[in-house]
From TrEMBL:
It comes from the Bacteria. This is Prokaryotic metallothionein.
Amino acid sequence: MAVCEHCGNDYDKSFQVVMSGKTHNFDSFECAIHALAPSCAHCGVRIVGHGLEKDGTFYCCDHCAEAKGVKGLRDRI
């Protein structure tokens, strides 16, 4: 068993995620998302899908990017 690094639960069905060469232990996808997924720079939602990125800043959709003054990004081309 491994302890979830987000919530601290010691769970027999925990799993590992390797991101940027570092191994992380979680007990659920929910905890993995909270710990590893980037947040939208405008609305703060965790970006679980592809999202959009401009100069290292992440947005969940083109609406949020445009609200921050970023032009030209589209989530459907």
